[in-house]
Protein backbone atom coordinates (compact mmCIF):
# COMPACT_ATOMS: atom_id res chain seq x y z
CA UNK A 1 0.00 0.00 0.00
CA UNK A 2 2.67 2.47 1.00
CA UNK A 3 4.58 1.81 -2.20
CA UNK A 4 1.87 3.13 -4.46
CA UNK A 5 0.59 5.89 -2.17
CA UNK A 6 4.05 7.41 -2.27
CA UNK A 7 3.97 7.55 -6.02
CA UNK A 8 1.34 10.29 -6.16
CA UNK A 9 3.02 13.29 -7.68
CA UNK A 10 1.59 16.27 -5.75
CA UNK A 11 2.64 19.00 -8.17
CA UNK A 12 -0.03 18.66 -10.89
CA UNK A 13 -2.64 18.90 -8.14
CA UNK A 14 -1.03 21.75 -6.27
CA UNK A 15 0.21 23.88 -9.12
CA UNK A 16 -3.04 25.65 -10.07
CA UNK A 17 -3.81 26.66 -6.48
CA UNK A 18 -0.24 27.61 -5.71
CA UNK A 19 0.21 29.73 -8.82
CA UNK A 20 -2.97 31.64 -7.97
CA UNK A 21 -1.60 32.28 -4.47
CA UNK A 22 1.73 33.31 -5.94
CA UNK A 23 0.26 35.77 -8.44
CA UNK A 24 -2.51 37.27 -6.34
CA UNK A 25 -1.12 37.05 -2.85
CA UNK A 26 2.63 36.52 -2.48
CA UNK A 27 3.69 38.79 -5.33
CA UNK A 28 1.38 41.66 -4.29
CA UNK A 29 2.59 41.34 -0.70
CA UNK A 30 6.22 41.55 -1.81
CA UNK A 31 5.35 44.47 -4.05
CA UNK A 32 3.66 46.22 -1.14
CA UNK A 33 6.71 45.80 1.09
CA UNK A 34 8.94 47.21 -1.64
CA UNK A 35 6.56 50.13 -2.26
CA UNK A 36 6.45 50.98 1.43
CA UNK A 37 10.25 51.06 1.53
CA UNK A 38 10.59 53.12 -1.65
CA UNK A 39 11.08 56.83 -1.09
CA UNK A 40 11.83 59.68 -3.44
CA UNK A 41 15.52 59.40 -2.66
CA UNK A 42 15.78 55.62 -2.78
CA UNK A 43 15.25 52.91 -0.21
CA UNK A 44 14.57 53.54 3.45
CA UNK A 45 12.15 53.75 6.30
CA UNK A 46 11.14 57.33 5.56
CA UNK A 47 7.55 56.36 4.80
CA UNK A 48 7.22 54.75 8.20
CA UNK A 49 8.82 57.73 9.94
CA UNK A 50 6.33 59.94 8.13
CA UNK A 51 3.48 57.66 9.18
CA UNK A 52 4.37 57.89 12.86
CA UNK A 53 4.93 61.63 12.59
CA UNK A 54 1.44 62.21 11.16
CA UNK A 55 -1.03 62.67 14.02
CA UNK A 56 -4.19 61.74 12.14
CA UNK A 57 -2.59 58.45 11.03
CA UNK A 58 -1.27 57.47 14.45
CA UNK A 59 -4.63 58.39 15.97
CA UNK A 60 -6.32 56.17 13.40
CA UNK A 61 -3.95 53.33 14.29
CA UNK A 62 -4.74 53.86 17.96
CA UNK A 63 -8.47 53.83 17.23
CA UNK A 64 -8.11 50.67 15.16
CA UNK A 65 -6.35 48.96 18.05
CA UNK A 66 -8.81 50.10 20.70
CA UNK A 67 -11.79 49.20 18.52
CA UNK A 68 -10.47 45.78 17.55
CA UNK A 69 -9.33 44.79 21.03
CA UNK A 70 -12.51 45.98 22.77
CA UNK A 71 -14.68 44.17 20.26
CA UNK A 72 -12.54 41.03 20.56
CA UNK A 73 -12.72 41.02 24.36
CA UNK A 74 -16.49 41.44 24.38
CA UNK A 75 -16.91 38.83 21.64
CA UNK A 76 -14.74 36.27 23.42
CA UNK A 77 -16.74 36.68 26.63
CA UNK A 78 -20.12 36.45 24.95
CA UNK A 79 -19.10 33.41 22.91
CA UNK A 80 -18.40 31.25 25.98
CA UNK A 81 -21.96 30.91 27.26
CA UNK A 82 -23.18 30.43 23.68
CA UNK A 83 -20.86 27.52 22.95
CA UNK A 84 -21.31 26.13 26.44
CA UNK A 85 -25.06 26.15 26.05
CA UNK A 86 -25.05 24.48 22.64
CA UNK A 87 -22.58 21.76 23.59
CA UNK A 88 -23.61 20.95 27.15
CA UNK A 89 -27.29 21.84 27.35
CA UNK A 90 -28.61 20.68 24.00
CA UNK A 91 -29.13 17.13 22.87
CA UNK A 92 -26.49 15.90 20.42
CA UNK A 93 -29.03 15.62 17.64
CA UNK A 94 -30.07 19.27 17.85
CA UNK A 95 -26.66 20.87 18.35
CA UNK A 96 -26.01 21.73 14.68
CA UNK A 97 -29.43 23.33 14.48
CA UNK A 98 -28.75 25.59 17.47
CA UNK A 99 -25.34 26.43 16.09
CA UNK A 100 -26.92 27.37 12.77
CA UNK A 101 -29.47 29.54 14.56
CA UNK A 102 -26.73 31.68 16.04
CA UNK A 103 -24.50 31.59 12.96
CA UNK A 104 -27.12 32.17 10.26
CA UNK A 105 -26.58 35.92 9.82
CA UNK A 106 -22.87 35.17 9.56
CA UNK A 107 -23.39 33.88 6.04
CA UNK A 108 -24.73 37.10 4.70
CA UNK A 109 -23.38 40.45 3.70
CA UNK A 110 -21.36 42.27 6.31
CA UNK A 111 -22.44 45.62 4.94
CA UNK A 112 -26.11 44.85 5.13
CA UNK A 113 -25.82 43.66 8.70
CA UNK A 114 -24.02 46.86 9.69
CA UNK A 115 -26.63 48.91 7.90
CA UNK A 116 -29.51 47.10 9.60
CA UNK A 117 -28.09 48.18 12.94
CA UNK A 118 -28.39 51.79 11.83
CA UNK A 119 -32.14 51.31 11.69
CA UNK A 120 -32.16 50.07 15.27
CA UNK A 121 -29.64 52.37 16.92
CA UNK A 122 -30.21 55.71 15.22
CA UNK A 123 -31.73 58.60 17.14
CA UNK A 124 -35.10 58.01 15.50
CA UNK A 125 -34.61 54.26 15.31
CA UNK A 126 -36.39 51.34 16.86
CA UNK A 127 -34.75 51.50 20.30
CA UNK A 128 -35.62 55.16 20.76
CA UNK A 129 -39.14 54.52 19.55
CA UNK A 130 -39.52 51.67 22.02
CA UNK A 131 -38.16 53.66 24.98
CA UNK A 132 -40.46 56.57 24.16
CA UNK A 133 -43.41 54.23 23.82
CA UNK A 134 -42.77 52.66 27.22
CA UNK A 135 -41.68 55.68 29.25
CA UNK A 136 -43.54 58.42 27.43
CA UNK A 137 -40.49 60.69 27.51
CA UNK A 138 -38.65 61.74 24.42
CA UNK A 139 -35.06 60.57 24.50
CA UNK A 140 -31.94 61.04 22.42
CA UNK A 141 -29.99 57.82 22.25
CA UNK A 142 -26.76 59.22 20.83
CA UNK A 143 -25.27 55.80 20.20
CA UNK A 144 -25.08 55.76 16.43
CA UNK A 145 -21.88 57.23 14.97
CA UNK A 146 -19.82 56.64 18.08
CA UNK A 147 -16.98 54.29 18.87
CA UNK A 148 -19.32 52.29 21.12
CA UNK A 149 -21.62 51.54 18.21
CA UNK A 150 -18.64 50.25 16.21
CA UNK A 151 -17.48 48.10 19.11
CA UNK A 152 -20.99 46.72 19.47
CA UNK A 153 -21.31 45.88 15.78
CA UNK A 154 -17.94 44.20 15.55
CA UNK A 155 -18.34 42.36 18.84
CA UNK A 156 -21.58 40.88 17.62
CA UNK A 157 -19.88 39.57 14.51
CA UNK A 158 -16.87 38.35 16.49
CA UNK A 159 -19.04 36.51 18.98
CA UNK A 160 -20.47 34.43 16.16
CA UNK A 161 -17.00 33.62 14.90
CA UNK A 162 -15.71 32.68 18.36
CA UNK A 163 -18.83 30.67 19.15
CA UNK A 164 -18.13 28.68 15.99
CA UNK A 165 -14.48 27.87 16.79
CA UNK A 166 -15.16 27.25 20.48
CA UNK A 167 -18.05 24.97 19.59
CA UNK A 168 -15.68 22.92 17.44
CA UNK A 169 -13.30 22.47 20.36
CA UNK A 170 -15.94 21.74 23.00
CA UNK A 171 -17.99 19.35 20.91
CA UNK A 172 -15.02 17.11 20.27
CA UNK A 173 -14.32 16.59 23.97
CA UNK A 174 -14.85 12.91 24.65
CA UNK A 175 -17.81 12.68 26.97
CA UNK A 176 -16.39 9.53 28.59
CA UNK A 177 -13.68 11.74 30.05
CA UNK A 178 -16.26 13.85 31.83
CA UNK A 179 -18.22 10.81 32.97
CA UNK A 180 -15.07 9.19 34.34
CA UNK A 181 -14.12 12.33 36.24
CA UNK A 182 -17.62 12.59 37.62
CA UNK A 183 -17.67 8.94 38.69
CA UNK A 184 -14.41 9.50 40.50
CA UNK A 185 -16.03 12.35 42.41
CA UNK A 186 -15.05 15.48 40.49
CA UNK A 187 -17.36 18.43 41.06
CA UNK A 188 -18.59 20.49 38.08
CA UNK A 189 -16.01 23.16 38.87
CA UNK A 190 -13.13 20.70 38.70
CA UNK A 191 -14.48 19.14 35.54
CA UNK A 192 -14.51 22.63 34.08
CA UNK A 193 -11.02 23.53 35.30
CA UNK A 194 -9.26 20.28 34.46
CA UNK A 195 -11.06 19.02 31.35
CA UNK A 196 -13.17 21.63 29.60
CA UNK A 197 -10.88 24.60 30.04
CA UNK A 198 -7.65 23.02 28.71
CA UNK A 199 -9.42 21.25 25.84
CA UNK A 200 -11.57 24.22 24.88
CA UNK A 201 -8.82 26.82 25.08
CA UNK A 202 -7.35 26.26 21.58
CA UNK A 203 -10.76 26.78 19.97
CA UNK A 204 -11.34 29.90 22.04
CA UNK A 205 -7.96 31.37 21.18
CA UNK A 206 -8.45 30.62 17.48
CA UNK A 207 -11.72 32.53 17.62
CA UNK A 208 -10.09 35.46 19.40
CA UNK A 209 -7.30 35.57 16.81
CA UNK A 210 -9.70 35.52 13.85
CA UNK A 211 -12.01 38.08 15.44
CA UNK A 212 -9.15 40.50 16.00
CA UNK A 213 -8.03 40.12 12.39
CA UNK A 214 -11.48 40.78 11.01
CA UNK A 215 -12.07 43.73 13.35
CA UNK A 216 -8.76 45.49 12.79
CA UNK A 217 -9.22 45.40 9.00
CA UNK A 218 -12.89 46.26 8.84
CA UNK A 219 -14.13 49.43 7.20
CA UNK A 220 -17.88 48.74 6.94
CA UNK A 221 -18.85 48.81 10.61
CA UNK A 222 -16.64 51.82 11.48
CA UNK A 223 -18.12 53.72 8.53
CA UNK A 224 -21.78 52.80 8.93
CA UNK A 225 -21.97 52.64 12.74
CA UNK A 226 -18.95 54.66 13.85
CA UNK A 227 -19.30 57.44 11.32
CA UNK A 228 -16.59 59.01 9.20
CA UNK A 229 -15.37 61.76 11.53
CA UNK A 230 -12.95 59.64 13.52
CA UNK A 231 -11.73 57.13 10.97
CA UNK A 232 -9.82 53.94 11.67
CA UNK A 233 -6.87 52.89 9.51
CA UNK A 234 -8.95 50.72 7.20
CA UNK A 235 -11.22 53.66 6.36
CA UNK A 236 -8.20 55.84 5.62
CA UNK A 237 -6.76 53.20 3.28
CA UNK A 238 -10.05 52.96 1.44
CA UNK A 239 -10.19 56.70 0.95
CA UNK A 240 -6.56 56.94 -0.17
CA UNK A 241 -7.03 54.35 -2.89
CA UNK A 242 -10.18 56.00 -4.18
CA UNK A 243 -9.02 59.56 -3.56
CA UNK A 244 -5.55 61.02 -3.23
CA UNK A 245 -4.04 57.84 -4.61
CA UNK A 246 -0.72 58.06 -2.78
CA UNK A 247 0.43 54.50 -3.47
CA UNK A 248 3.44 54.35 -1.19
CA UNK A 249 1.42 55.82 1.66
CA UNK A 250 -1.29 53.20 1.10
CA UNK A 251 1.38 50.49 1.07
CA UNK A 252 2.94 51.87 4.25
CA UNK A 253 -0.39 51.91 6.08
CA UNK A 254 -1.08 48.38 4.89
CA UNK A 255 2.29 47.15 6.18
CA UNK A 256 1.75 48.90 9.53
CA UNK A 257 -1.62 47.18 9.81
CA UNK A 258 -0.12 43.82 8.86
CA UNK A 259 2.64 44.23 11.45
CA UNK A 260 0.01 45.13 14.04
CA UNK A 261 -1.85 41.91 13.32
CA UNK A 262 1.33 39.88 13.52
CA UNK A 263 2.49 41.49 16.78
CA UNK A 264 -0.92 41.20 18.43
CA UNK A 265 -1.39 37.65 17.19
CA UNK A 266 2.11 36.52 18.12
CA UNK A 267 1.29 35.23 21.63
CA UNK A 268 -1.52 33.09 20.22
CA UNK A 269 0.57 31.84 17.28
CA UNK A 270 3.45 30.94 19.63
CA UNK A 271 1.02 29.20 21.96
CA UNK A 272 -0.26 27.16 19.02
CA UNK A 273 3.26 26.13 18.03
CA UNK A 274 4.23 25.23 21.60
CA UNK A 275 1.12 23.13 21.93
CA UNK A 276 1.72 21.31 18.65
CA UNK A 277 5.35 20.62 19.58
CA UNK A 278 4.29 19.19 22.91
CA UNK A 279 1.84 16.86 21.22
CA UNK A 280 4.40 15.84 18.63
CA UNK A 281 7.02 15.05 21.28
CA UNK B 1 -25.76 13.77 30.82
CA UNK B 2 -26.33 17.46 31.39
CA UNK B 3 -26.25 17.49 35.14
CA UNK B 4 -22.61 16.36 35.18
CA UNK B 5 -21.43 19.74 34.01
CA UNK B 6 -24.30 22.17 34.15
CA UNK B 7 -26.46 22.56 37.21
CA UNK B 8 -30.18 23.35 36.90
CA UNK B 9 -29.50 26.95 37.84
CA UNK B 10 -26.72 27.33 35.28
CA UNK B 11 -28.91 25.67 32.69
CA UNK B 12 -31.61 28.29 33.04
CA UNK B 13 -29.11 31.15 32.96
CA UNK B 14 -27.43 29.78 29.83
CA UNK B 15 -30.78 29.23 28.14
CA UNK B 16 -31.93 32.74 28.94
CA UNK B 17 -28.68 34.24 27.68
CA UNK B 18 -28.86 32.25 24.48
CA UNK B 19 -32.43 33.38 23.79
CA UNK B 20 -31.48 36.98 24.51
CA UNK B 21 -28.60 36.70 22.04
CA UNK B 22 -30.90 35.33 19.38
CA UNK B 23 -33.20 38.31 19.85
CA UNK B 24 -30.29 40.76 19.58
CA UNK B 25 -28.91 39.04 16.51
CA UNK B 26 -32.19 38.88 14.61
CA UNK B 27 -33.77 42.15 15.74
CA UNK B 28 -32.09 44.47 13.20
CA UNK B 29 -32.68 42.08 10.34
CA UNK B 30 -36.35 41.78 11.17
CA UNK B 31 -36.57 45.56 11.48
CA UNK B 32 -34.99 45.93 8.04
CA UNK B 33 -37.48 43.47 6.60
CA UNK B 34 -40.38 45.35 8.16
CA UNK B 35 -39.12 48.67 6.83
CA UNK B 36 -38.79 47.19 3.36
CA UNK B 37 -42.60 46.92 3.31
CA UNK B 38 -43.21 50.28 4.94
CA UNK B 39 -44.53 53.14 2.85
CA UNK B 40 -43.07 56.59 3.41
CA UNK B 41 -39.58 57.83 2.74
CA UNK B 42 -38.34 58.01 6.33
CA UNK B 43 -37.10 55.08 8.31
CA UNK B 44 -39.14 55.72 11.42
CA UNK B 45 -41.75 53.84 13.32
CA UNK B 46 -44.65 53.49 13.74
CA UNK B 47 -45.33 51.38 10.69
CA UNK B 48 -47.46 53.19 8.13
CA UNK B 49 -48.99 51.18 5.34
CA UNK B 50 -47.70 47.96 3.86
CA UNK B 51 -46.39 48.42 0.34
CA UNK B 52 -44.40 46.64 -2.33
CA UNK B 53 -43.27 49.90 -3.93
CA UNK B 54 -39.61 49.53 -2.84
CA UNK B 55 -39.39 46.08 -4.35
CA UNK B 56 -40.94 47.34 -7.56
CA UNK B 57 -38.51 50.27 -7.57
CA UNK B 58 -35.65 47.84 -7.01
CA UNK B 59 -36.55 45.68 -9.98
CA UNK B 60 -37.07 48.75 -12.14
CA UNK B 61 -33.60 50.10 -11.27
CA UNK B 62 -31.28 48.80 -13.96
CA UNK B 63 -28.14 49.67 -11.99
CA UNK B 64 -29.26 47.26 -9.27
CA UNK B 65 -30.21 44.53 -11.69
CA UNK B 66 -26.96 44.86 -13.63
CA UNK B 67 -24.82 44.79 -10.54
CA UNK B 68 -26.77 41.77 -9.31
CA UNK B 69 -26.12 39.95 -12.59
CA UNK B 70 -22.43 40.86 -12.43
CA UNK B 71 -22.22 39.53 -8.88
CA UNK B 72 -24.04 36.38 -9.89
CA UNK B 73 -21.61 35.74 -12.71
CA UNK B 74 -18.51 36.50 -10.62
CA UNK B 75 -19.66 34.33 -7.74
CA UNK B 76 -20.65 31.42 -9.96
CA UNK B 77 -17.32 31.35 -11.75
CA UNK B 78 -15.21 32.03 -8.65
CA UNK B 79 -16.96 29.27 -6.69
CA UNK B 80 -16.49 26.74 -9.48
CA UNK B 81 -12.80 27.69 -9.89
CA UNK B 82 -12.15 27.65 -6.16
CA UNK B 83 -13.89 24.31 -5.69
CA UNK B 84 -11.92 22.67 -8.49
CA UNK B 85 -8.57 24.14 -7.44
CA UNK B 86 -9.41 23.46 -3.80
CA UNK B 87 -10.32 19.85 -4.49
CA UNK B 88 -7.06 19.21 -6.35
CA UNK B 89 -4.98 20.93 -3.68
CA UNK B 90 -6.84 19.20 -0.84
CA UNK B 91 -6.21 15.86 -2.52
CA UNK B 92 -2.48 16.55 -2.74
CA UNK B 93 -2.28 17.79 0.86
CA UNK B 94 -4.26 14.83 2.10
CA UNK B 95 -2.93 11.89 0.13
CA UNK B 96 0.40 12.78 -1.46
CA UNK B 97 3.76 13.43 0.09
CA UNK B 98 4.15 17.18 -0.32
CA UNK B 99 7.58 18.65 0.31
CA UNK B 100 7.52 21.59 2.75
CA UNK B 101 3.94 20.56 3.53
CA UNK B 102 3.40 23.03 6.38
CA UNK B 103 4.78 25.98 4.43
CA UNK B 104 2.77 25.33 1.26
CA UNK B 105 -0.41 24.61 3.19
CA UNK B 106 0.20 27.80 5.15
CA UNK B 107 0.52 29.81 1.94
CA UNK B 108 -2.76 28.46 0.57
CA UNK B 109 -4.60 29.05 3.87
CA UNK B 110 -3.02 32.43 4.56
CA UNK B 111 -5.62 34.67 2.85
CA UNK B 112 -8.05 33.50 5.52
CA UNK B 113 -5.96 34.90 8.38
CA UNK B 114 -5.09 38.24 6.85
CA UNK B 115 -7.44 41.22 6.90
CA UNK B 116 -9.27 41.25 3.56
CA UNK B 117 -8.46 44.89 3.00
CA UNK B 118 -4.72 44.13 2.95
CA UNK B 119 -5.15 41.51 0.24
CA UNK B 120 -7.33 43.89 -1.75
CA UNK B 121 -4.86 46.75 -1.45
CA UNK B 122 -1.99 44.45 -2.37
CA UNK B 123 -3.76 43.41 -5.56
CA UNK B 124 -4.65 46.98 -6.45
CA UNK B 125 -1.09 48.22 -5.98
CA UNK B 126 0.19 45.25 -7.96
CA UNK B 127 -1.97 45.91 -11.01
CA UNK B 128 -1.12 49.59 -10.87
CA UNK B 129 2.59 48.71 -10.77
CA UNK B 130 2.19 46.42 -13.73
CA UNK B 131 0.05 48.91 -15.61
CA UNK B 132 -2.95 46.59 -15.89
CA UNK B 133 -6.34 48.23 -16.15
CA UNK B 134 -8.85 47.27 -13.43
CA UNK B 135 -11.25 44.72 -14.91
CA UNK B 136 -13.73 42.03 -14.02
CA UNK B 137 -11.42 39.11 -14.80
CA UNK B 138 -9.09 40.40 -12.08
CA UNK B 139 -11.99 40.47 -9.64
CA UNK B 140 -12.78 36.91 -10.60
CA UNK B 141 -9.26 35.66 -9.90
CA UNK B 142 -8.97 37.76 -6.76
CA UNK B 143 -12.20 36.38 -5.36
CA UNK B 144 -11.17 32.84 -6.27
CA UNK B 145 -8.07 33.37 -4.16
CA UNK B 146 -10.20 34.76 -1.35
CA UNK B 147 -12.50 31.72 -1.13
CA UNK B 148 -9.85 29.11 -1.96
CA UNK B 149 -8.84 28.50 1.71
CA UNK B 150 -12.45 27.70 2.58
CA UNK B 151 -12.61 25.15 -0.21
CA UNK B 152 -9.28 23.56 0.69
CA UNK B 153 -10.13 23.24 4.39
CA UNK B 154 -13.63 21.84 3.80
CA UNK B 155 -12.52 19.35 1.18
CA UNK B 156 -9.36 18.30 3.00
CA UNK B 157 -11.47 17.46 6.06
CA UNK B 158 -13.52 15.20 3.86
CA UNK B 159 -10.72 13.56 1.89
CA UNK B 160 -8.75 12.92 5.10
CA UNK B 161 -11.54 10.60 6.22
CA UNK B 162 -11.56 8.52 3.05
CA UNK B 163 -9.34 5.47 3.43
CA UNK B 164 -6.51 5.28 0.93
CA UNK B 165 -7.48 1.64 0.32
CA UNK B 166 -10.45 2.60 -1.86
CA UNK B 167 -8.27 4.26 -4.42
CA UNK B 168 -5.64 1.56 -4.06
CA UNK B 169 -8.24 -1.04 -4.91
CA UNK B 170 -9.24 0.79 -8.07
CA UNK B 171 -5.67 1.30 -9.14
CA UNK B 172 -4.64 -2.28 -8.48
CA UNK B 173 -7.59 -3.31 -10.66
CA UNK B 174 -6.13 -1.30 -13.50
CA UNK B 175 -7.63 2.16 -13.15
CA UNK B 176 -5.53 5.22 -13.72
CA UNK B 177 -4.96 7.77 -10.94
CA UNK B 178 -7.08 10.37 -12.68
CA UNK B 179 -9.88 7.91 -13.34
CA UNK B 180 -9.91 6.76 -9.73
CA UNK B 181 -10.13 10.36 -8.56
CA UNK B 182 -12.99 11.21 -10.90
CA UNK B 183 -14.92 7.94 -10.52
CA UNK B 184 -14.29 7.13 -6.86
CA UNK B 185 -13.06 10.08 -4.84
CA UNK B 186 -15.25 12.79 -6.38
CA UNK B 187 -18.55 10.88 -5.97
CA UNK B 188 -17.73 10.11 -2.33
CA UNK B 189 -16.99 13.80 -1.83
CA UNK B 190 -20.07 14.93 -3.73
CA UNK B 191 -21.98 16.35 -0.74
CA UNK B 192 -18.87 18.19 0.43
CA UNK B 193 -18.16 19.44 -3.06
CA UNK B 194 -21.70 20.76 -3.34
CA UNK B 195 -21.52 22.40 0.08
CA UNK B 196 -18.17 23.96 -0.78
CA UNK B 197 -19.59 25.28 -4.01
CA UNK B 198 -22.46 26.97 -2.18
CA UNK B 199 -20.27 28.31 0.61
CA UNK B 200 -17.66 29.79 -1.70
CA UNK B 201 -20.47 31.22 -3.83
CA UNK B 202 -21.97 32.98 -0.82
CA UNK B 203 -18.67 34.44 0.31
CA UNK B 204 -17.74 35.58 -3.16
CA UNK B 205 -21.22 37.01 -3.75
CA UNK B 206 -20.94 39.18 -0.63
CA UNK B 207 -17.29 40.13 -1.13
CA UNK B 208 -16.66 43.85 -1.30
CA UNK B 209 -13.04 44.94 -0.98
CA UNK B 210 -11.50 43.02 -3.87
CA UNK B 211 -14.31 43.96 -6.22
CA UNK B 212 -14.08 47.58 -5.08
CA UNK B 213 -10.34 47.80 -5.71
CA UNK B 214 -10.12 45.80 -8.93
CA UNK B 215 -12.91 47.34 -11.00
CA UNK B 216 -13.80 50.85 -11.94
CA UNK B 217 -17.12 50.76 -13.74
CA UNK B 218 -18.56 47.26 -13.84
CA UNK B 219 -19.69 47.17 -10.23
CA UNK B 220 -20.99 44.25 -8.20
CA UNK B 221 -24.05 44.30 -5.96
CA UNK B 222 -22.16 44.88 -2.66
CA UNK B 223 -20.51 47.93 -4.23
CA UNK B 224 -23.85 49.24 -5.48
CA UNK B 225 -25.34 48.88 -2.01
CA UNK B 226 -22.29 50.38 -0.33
CA UNK B 227 -22.32 53.39 -2.63
CA UNK B 228 -25.94 53.99 -1.85
CA UNK B 229 -25.32 53.69 1.90
CA UNK B 230 -22.46 56.14 2.06
CA UNK B 231 -23.68 58.71 -0.44
CA UNK B 232 -27.28 59.15 0.56
CA UNK B 233 -29.96 56.79 1.61
CA UNK B 234 -32.48 55.29 -0.79
CA UNK B 235 -35.46 53.53 0.83
CA UNK B 236 -35.17 50.66 -1.63
CA UNK B 237 -31.96 49.65 0.14
CA UNK B 238 -34.16 47.97 2.74
CA UNK B 239 -35.70 45.88 -0.02
CA UNK B 240 -32.29 45.15 -1.54
CA UNK B 241 -30.90 44.20 1.87
CA UNK B 242 -33.81 41.89 2.57
CA UNK B 243 -33.49 40.23 -0.82
CA UNK B 244 -29.71 39.77 -0.52
CA UNK B 245 -30.03 38.55 3.05
CA UNK B 246 -32.55 35.87 2.17
CA UNK B 247 -30.63 34.87 -0.95
CA UNK B 248 -27.26 34.43 0.79
CA UNK B 249 -28.78 32.97 3.89
CA UNK B 250 -30.56 30.24 1.97
CA UNK B 251 -27.39 29.20 0.13
CA UNK B 252 -25.21 29.47 3.23
CA UNK B 253 -27.61 27.49 5.36
CA UNK B 254 -27.92 24.68 2.84
CA UNK B 255 -24.12 24.48 2.65
CA UNK B 256 -23.67 24.53 6.40
CA UNK B 257 -26.47 22.03 6.83
CA UNK B 258 -24.73 19.57 4.53
CA UNK B 259 -21.37 20.08 6.23
CA UNK B 260 -22.73 19.68 9.75
CA UNK B 261 -25.24 16.88 9.24
CA UNK B 262 -23.64 14.84 6.50
CA UNK B 263 -20.36 14.45 8.29
CA UNK B 264 -21.03 11.05 9.79
CA UNK B 265 -22.18 9.24 6.66
CA UNK B 266 -18.61 8.26 5.77
CA UNK B 267 -18.65 5.57 8.43
CA UNK B 268 -20.22 3.17 5.94
CA UNK B 269 -17.09 3.40 3.81
CA UNK B 270 -14.75 2.66 6.67
CA UNK B 271 -13.21 -0.77 6.57
CA UNK B 272 -13.44 -2.98 9.62
Tally of distinct domains of chain A: 2
Structure classification of chain B: mainly alpha
Strand segment count of chain A: 2
Structural class by SSE content of chain A: mainly alpha
Straight-line distance between termini of chain A: 27 Å
N-to-C span of chain B: 30 Å
Proportion of residues in helical segments of chain B: over 70%
Number of separate domains of chain B? 1
Shape of chain A from CA axes?
A: globular
pLDDT < 50 stretches of chain B: none
Question: What is CATH's topology name of chain B?
Answer: MetI-like fold
Order of helices and strands of chain A: HHEEHHHHHHHHHHH
How many beta-strand runs of chain B? 0
Q: By CATH's scheme, which homologous superfamily of the largest domain in chain A applies?
A: MetI-like
What percentage of amino acids of chain A are in beta strands?
under 5%
Give the strand order, joined by hyphens, for the main sheet of chain A. 1-2
Which bin fits the share of residues in helices of chain A?
over 70%
What oligomeric state is this? heterodimer
What is the CATH T-level topology of the largest domain in chain A? MetI-like fold
For the record, the CATH class of the largest domain in chain A is: Mainly Alpha
Largest sheet of chain B: none
Amino acid sequence: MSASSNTINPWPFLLPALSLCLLFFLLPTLNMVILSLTTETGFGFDNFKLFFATPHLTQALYRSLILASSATIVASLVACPHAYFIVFCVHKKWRPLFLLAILAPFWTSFTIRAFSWQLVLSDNGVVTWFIELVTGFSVTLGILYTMNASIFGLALFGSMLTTFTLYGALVSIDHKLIEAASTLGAKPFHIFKDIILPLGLPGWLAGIFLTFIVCVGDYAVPTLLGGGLKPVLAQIMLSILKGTYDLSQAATIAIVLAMTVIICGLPIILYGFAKRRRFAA
Amino acid sequence: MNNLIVSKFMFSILTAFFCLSLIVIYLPIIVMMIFSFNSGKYQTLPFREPTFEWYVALIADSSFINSFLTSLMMASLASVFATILGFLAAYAFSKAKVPAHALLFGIVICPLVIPMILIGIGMRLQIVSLGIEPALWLVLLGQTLYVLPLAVINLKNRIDKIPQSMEEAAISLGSSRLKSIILILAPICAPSLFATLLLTFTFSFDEFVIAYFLTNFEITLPIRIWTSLVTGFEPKINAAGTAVFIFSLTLGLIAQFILLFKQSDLSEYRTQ
